[in-house]
Amino acid sequence: MRFRRIASGAAVLSVLGVAGGAYTLKAAFPPLEDGCDFEALSGEPLSVGMYDFVTRQLPLRAVSRLWGTVNELPLPVPLRAPLYNSWCRTFDCDVDQAEKPLKEYANLQEFFGRALKPGLRPTDTAPDAVVSPCDGRVLTCGPVGAFGKLHQVKGFTYDLRDFLGVEGPHEKLALSAVNVYDESDKNRKDAALSKQRSSNQLFQMVLYLAPGDYHNFHSPVDDWQLTKVRHVVGELLSVNPAVARRIPNLFVLNERIVLLGEWGEERRRFFSMTAVGATNVGSIRMFFPTKFPIKTNRVGAKRHKIHEEKFLGKDATIRFDRGDLVGGFRLGSSIVLVFEAPEDFHFLVRPGDRVLCGQKVGQFHH
């Protein structure tokens, strides 16, 4: 009898969590229209006091852990389909694309991490193409600015070295692009990132995944070999474009997993993909083998500490081709690509466009 009461209470909490979470997230992640001009979104940068409160005082990491716990509670079978259908209506999600019947997803975590039916996200096979790693909307895309400045929104940039993760308080991270590091810098430890050739350039692309999107992400290019994996502990602030307009250095502040490697032409070009956490998205999964587990949003983790810990192991070889599954979020968040390509590379999309996983978003010519 006691077990039944506990199970019943857990079921009620699950239902309330779904309903409350949907309402909260709907307010936190307002729908974005096709072609939305993110630069024109309203909102002024936060004051110094409010910035400190939001980034240091709000218990967003604890809230995200609580949300994750609720999401793992089992839902009663008769309620699963109605609740998941309601979620999909709220966030404009096509429930018919799910690989399994709705009743087979035991909780929200399983539903968020659902695979899609085979063939729904074909990977473009055009030569020399870069494809979208996920479903989402383009927040920004284009060349990396001088001295490694990445574009967040109008008026806000952030440092690429800070974003990818420095190796010590006084150590710079060498990057593979002209004007990103000083040639006199003697602390270049990432040799894989210092192979820039004059005919190449660094490019960036940021994709925003809404709560209703497919949450897994895949390799955007062929012949991408990982050289390093970094886990940067950080905040879990919302990455909604309206929030990005008000909080400088948002992507540097947030927790993230940075995947560094090389691709193309005997893997001589730098390629990085970073999965950025957000409010209620503390859990980021990687689907490739690692020597040590990558545990995000841990209790007591020191903010902005960088864990490298030889995740890949000494002799590990992790290689991806275009469309290969890399990882996934437990809800929506952001993917940031920074990669080296020939100067004639050009994007085929622009900020505000909605893209699907596997869709061609850029191409270059030999």
Give a short summary of the structure:
One of its GO terms (biological process) is phosphatidylethanolamine biosynthetic process. With 366 residues, the protein is α+β, with helices and mostly antiparallel strands.
Supply the key terms.
366 residues, alpha+beta, 2 domains, nine-stranded antiparallel beta sheet, 8 helices, decarboxylase, lipid metabolism, phospholipid biosynthesis, pyruvate
How are the SSEs ordered, and which strands pair?
Blueprint: H1 2-28, H2 48-57, H3 60-71, H4 77-90, H5 108-112, E1 129-131, E2 136-143, E3 149-153, E4 156-159, H6 160-164, E5 200-208, E6 216-218, E7 224-232, H7 241-244, H8 250-253, E8 256-263, E9 269-276, E10 284-286, E11 306-307, E12 319-320, E13 325-329, E14 334-342, E15 346-347, E16 354-355, E17 360-363
Antiparallel strand pairs: 1-17, 2-5, 2-16, 3-4, 5-14, 6-13, 7-8, 7-11, 7-12, 8-9, 9-14, 10-13, 15-17
Low-pLDDT stretches are: 168-195
Number of domains: 2
> What would you call the structural class?
alpha+beta
Provide the helix percentage. 10-25%
Radius of gyration: 20 Å
Provide the succession of SSEs: HHHHHEEEEHEEEHHEEEEEEEEEE
Number of strands: 17
End-to-end separation in angstroms reads 71 Å
Portion in strands:
15-25%
User: Main beta sheet: strand number and arrangement?
Assistant: 9 strands, antiparallel
Summarize model confidence as the mean pLDDT.
76
Number of separate helices: 8
Shape: globular
Protein name: phosphatidylserine decarboxylase
EC number: 4.1.1.65
Organism: Porphyridium purpureum
GO cellular component, one term: mitochondrion
